[in-house]
Amino acid sequence: MSTFLPASSLTREKREVMLGWGLVFPAVFIILALILYPIVYNIYLSFFDVNLHRGNTFVGLENHRTVVTDPTFWRSLGTTVVYVVFTTVGTTLVGLVVALVMNQKFPLRGLVRSLVLFPYVAPVISVVFAWQFIFDPVNGIVMDVLVERLGILNTRVNLIGSPSSAVWIAIVFSIWKNFPFTYLMLLSRLQGIDKNLYEAAEVDGASGWEKFRYVTFPEIYFVTSSIILLRVIWNFNKFDEIYLLTTNVRVLSVYTYFKAFVGTMEMGQGSALALIQFILLIGFILFYVKKVLKW
Amino acid sequence: MKKMLSFLMILLVLISFGFAGGQQETADEMAGPVEIDFWTTQTQSDRLATIQVLVDTFQIMNPNVTINVIPVDENDMPTQLNTAAAAGNMPAMIECAAENAVAFGSEGLLDAEGVTELINSIGKDKYYAGTLKLNESSTPGLYYATPYHGWVQGIWYRADWFEAAGLNPPNTWENILKAAKYFYEPSNNQYGILVGTKAETYAEQCFTMFAMSNGAELFDKDGNLIFNSPEMKEAVEIYAELAKYNPPGPQTWRARDYYLQGKMAMFFYSTYIMDDLALAEAAAGSLTSENFADLAGASFDPELVKNTRMASTITNDYDAGYGVVVSLALPDQGDAAKTAAAQSFMRYLYTPNAYITWLHMAPGGMNPVLKEIAVNERFQNDPKGIFSNYGADKMAEIIAGLDNIETFSIVEGNRIAAASTIYSKQIIPQMIYKITQENMDVDRAMAWAEAEMNKQK
Fold it and tell me: Which residue of B1, B16, B422 to mutate against A (max A Cβ within 10 Å)?
């Protein structure tokens, strides 16, 4: 460095600044190239009629208009909201209950605590295949139990394939797969709560519910709210779990994929969809951070 | 300092744009070693292993060529190739359905001259003419791809069940529907028929036979879209009716397992099933009912191979057969050295030893398009004994069927490129999914499909 930047001409402070920039440069560069560039380019593309072979034509807001006037978009937005609401509530409640249980002392607790993490750490592709096999209408165990053994259903149905039921299977799958994360975060917070608080509450004659309501809940409030925010962000953009499990749950990300890459390949409209999805999510995050996290 | 900061940021953005913009490799390494990608639709690991053996052999003979074999699902091929074309990193060689090859060719993605040169060097008269025709561009004598192997589709059925029920073979609309109804016993976990209802290529392959047998076409010979016709509607309606006797929910070719398990009476499939049935026969010893007493549904029949027969044509107003020719093509990736390497690998694949090794990956499923290979003794003596199982005559009939494949994209000898695009965009399968799974009205679904098809012209 000294060969082309004579050290003597720089003050110590300036050299520090140079060093600082030198150190962050790789990270900034990677973020710009791999995150900012695609985002900016996506916004740019959403104003064009994209043709892979003949070049792009500027169409202004045409793509955005086409997308929002398409009833399929609203249906997929509805599916997304249903998916996000149920999976977030589901993972949070199941995670909370499991965390509370695992916070009690019982034999082999350490083993059980780690076993509960299994759905979260198992590779998504392998569990997806297992679920598909379980729900297979002809050979799967679910239909065998529901129809042959218990007689709850009269006929075999394809729960994972039929458009009407698939979203519920995707929700159950997501809750099963992701509750361990909530559980893990909450458990670590629960372990950090001062035991004296519970003892004091007991002295005041608090019941089990009251101990939860007035001691545990305030203690885990901000952790829970943060986890909920993360879960909403993750599940709003969720693609892999849903698409691999069943291709007919058209949440926004899956709908965008089909729009952009399958069949007629409307990449401009796909970009517009991605932009709309991005704006919706940012809007939610700002609202949530202000109202719930009280920043 | 502020100024410098913003300058740096702008610089970074510019650099990142240039960086992510992608650069084409320059063709300055002509003389040196060449590395090419070969995309194949053979995704099963045992087949990939065989292809790798062929590649290794070729590489030993051509030490300066390296070939990477990349499996691509046939349903993903159009998306993958289109995006690769946009990104400027197309493979030098692909293996895909002729229909897709024509779609790619008409989009300008393929090197038609290069492949035509190869076809001429092999000799046009050596091919079955029908298989070449399927790869021809709208310029006579110019081909988008060279046919390599092909299969014929039909309805495979339980001849023993049909006989016991006194039903006729499923070769007419009436016979098929009657049998599908008769054998549909969902309470016993037994189903009448399998037709494709998932929005995948398989659905179109099944559907084409119904449309053709009713004289329904996508286009007339001048290229006008005539999809929304009474004949087409009848075909869609019978198809939707048959789908009611399917196993539950959207289904694709994978459901053929239900047939192998003895839970289905009929299914549409290519001659590839001969290979699967041979495997089933090998496994039959362990699949008898005594070993699976608690499974619901009909028991597995160890005699399945002998009790399975194929109806290769469907008749209503016309006789219709269907099949797919799989071709080799040279994507136009702009590097002459790579194209030359791919051409020489293609030529190698047509030499008898390599060709027969390839075809024996799936005897019955992969049939030759060169006449001399069809009568080659080594070819007819396949390791799985399928030729001896079905008899040389039946096999000859199947191979001859390749020569007479009808598709929507050739009408009275005219090539309709838009029909190939419609095939590769899977518009008909999406329509079938809407009708059978989302309960959309036939007229509305056909109107939707027609609108989508119009966008492709």
Answer: B16
Please answer yes or no on whether A158 and B247 come within 8 Å at the CB atom.
yes
- Closest by Cβ to B437, choosing from A34, A155, A163: A163
Alpha helix stretches (DSSP H) within B304-382: 304-307, 336-349, 352-359, 371-374, 377-380
CA distance B290 to B277: 21
The model carries a pTM of 0.78
Task: Mutation target for B interface from A18, A133, A138, A255: give the one with most B CBs within 10 A.
Answer: A138
Rounded to an integer, the average pLDDT of B41-58 is 94
Structure tokens that stand for B78 in this block: 């159009």
In b/e form, how buried is each residue of A115-145, taking b as 16+ CB within 10 angstroms?
ebeebeeeeeeebbeebbebbbbbbbebbbe
Same domain for B185 and B219, yes or no, is yes
In angstroms, how far is CA B240 from the centroid of its own chain? 22
CB contact under 8 Å between B86 and A36, yes or no, is: no
Q: Which pLDDT does position B19 carry in this prediction?
A: 47
Cβ contact, residue pair A264, B250, below 8 Å: no
Numbered ranges of CATH 1.10.3720.10 in chain A:
75-291
ipTM associated with this complex: 0.78
In the prediction, which pLDDT does A135 show? 93
B157 and B305 in a common domain: yes
Same domain flag for B65 and B107: yes
Residue B14 lies in a domain: no
B3 in contact with chain A, both atoms CB, cutoff 8 A: no
Q: Which residues of A touch B (CB under 8 A)?
A: 17, 21, 28-29, 32-34, 36-38, 41, 52-53, 137-139, 144, 148, 155-158, 160-163, 247-248, 261-265
Q: In terms of residue numbers, what domain contains B52?
A: 36-151+323-390
What are the pLDDT digits (tens) for A87-107? Answer: 999 999 999 999 999 998 999
Is there a single domain that holds both residue B446 and residue B305?
A: yes
Residues B389 and B305 sit within 8 Å (Cβ to Cβ) = yes
Residues of B in Cβ contact (< 8 Å) with A52: 82-83, 85-86
We report the CATH number of the domain holding residue B268 as 3.40.190.10
Give the start-end residues of each E strand in chain A.
48-49, 57-58
Q: Which CATH number fits domain A75-291: 3.40.50.960, 1.20.120.610, 1.10.3720.10, 1.25.40.10?
A: 1.10.3720.10
State residue B375's pLDDT score: 85
Residue with tokens 């139990």: A145
Q: Which of A157, A248, A264 minimises the CB distance to B425? A: A264
| A21 neighbourhood in chain B, CB within 8 Å | 8
Smallest Cα distance from B11 to chain A, Å = 10
Asked if the structure places residue B396 within a domain, the reply is no
Q: Are residues B194 and B315 in the same domain?
A: yes
B158-181 tens-digit pLDDT: 999 999 999 999 999 999 999 999
Residue-level pLDDT at B409? 85
Residues B53 and B81 occupy one common structural domain: yes
* pLDDT at residue B412, as a whole number: 76
Between the two ends of chain A, the Cα-to-Cα distance in Å is 43
Polymer length in residues for chain B: 457
State the pLDDT at residue B446. 96
Q: Is B114 on the interface with A (CB under 8 A)?
A: no
A156: nearest CB among B189, B261, B426: B189
CA distance A188 to A138: 43
pLDDT band at B20 (very low <50, low <70, confident <90, very high): very low
